[in-house]
Amino acid sequence: MFYNILQTRNLVPDVNLMKVEAPDIAKAAKAGQFVILRIDESGERIPLTIADFDVDEGSITVIYQVMGKTTKQLTTLKTGETLQDFVGPLGTPSDIRKLGTVVMVGGGVGVAPVYPQARAYREAGNHVISIIGARNEEMLILEDEMAEVSDELYVATDDGSKGHHGFVTDIVKDILDSDQQVDRIVIIGPPIMMKVGAGVTASYGVETLVNLNPIMIDGTGMCGGCRVSVGGETKFACVDGPEFDAADVDFDLMMSRLSFYRPQEKEALESYNKKCGDDCKCH
């Protein structure tokens, strides 16, 4: 079975959106879950968080950053072409319920998984405050979409080209220092951003959740590649997560494991570039 690509488009430099026809996955998908895709029979399996799902259309939307060989190869695929495998929904759905005020924080491409969660929290009756950030205005994604699903939206850029000049965590601290009641904070982005965010919120006693993105292969808990240390125990992000309590996560161990295969990843990308250039679909 092959999966039809319904839409592809570039959002910002090196970040692309792909909408795939997958009606069974769309019917079952919930915020916080992910899919694993494979371009062709000799391709690499990669996990991508579900950025949106449409039951009526029977579609799943993923957003990816071009980082290595497979994500670069994805950029060569066009509307009407197909993927060999598209498996999901995988992972435990996010804990969405009515709590009161929920602060959603997304950094870089991490805004993509924040979007369906922010929408779900608001649909559950929460007051949703969203904070999104990027290196600069050109790299911000889903700003209009986030505004639609949020009661309040704040923007931060590292260079000050839009919104707050600084980091998303600066705004989180400002909110926590105010007299506004906050019942939960959800932070999704680069591991270092989630680590810093967890450090900022630790002294305020507000429940803080993160979505982890370790190395992942099979997505069903069999290979152990996605293991992380949470509260001193080994957890598999693909089945126990990807959502965990930020206070319990060993971020340093996760970041160390993420770099383990970097030489091989670099070699695969260089080999692809040498063989294929920018436009070829070879593997």
Automatic annotation (TrEMBL):
Swiss-Prot/TrEMBL cofactor(s): FAD; [2Fe-2S] cluster
One Gene Ontology molecular-function label: flavin adenine dinucleotide binding
Cofactor note: Binds 1 FAD per subunit.
GO terms of biological process kind: pyrimidine nucleotide biosynthetic process
InterPro entries in the cross-refs: Cyt_c3_hydrogenase_gsu, Dihydroorotate_DH_Fe-S-bd, FAD-bd_FR_type, FNR_nucleotide-bd, OxRdtase_FAD/NAD-bd, PyrK_electron_transfer, Riboflavin_synthase-like_b-brl
Binding site for FAD: I63, Y64, Q65
Binding residue positions for [2Fe-2S] cluster: C223, C226, C238
Gene3D superfamilies, A to Z: Nucleotide-binding domain of ferredoxin-NADP reductase (FNR) module (3.40.50.80), Translation factors (2.40.30.10)
One Pfam assignment: NAD_binding_1
Record has Metal-binding as a keyword: yes
PROSITE patterns in the cross-refs: FAD_FR (PS51384)
Keyword tags: 2Fe-2S, FAD, Flavoprotein, Iron, Iron-sulfur, Metal-binding
FAD-binding FR-type domain location: 1-96
UniProt key word Flavoprotein: yes
PANTHER family given in the database record: DIHYDROOROTATE DEHYDROGENASE B (NAD(+)), ELECTRON TRANSFER SUBUNIT, DIHYDROOROTATE DEHYDROGENASE B (NAD(+)), ELECTRON TRANSFER SUBUNIT-RELATED
Protein name according to UniProt: Sulfide dehydrogenase (Flavoprotein) subunit SudB
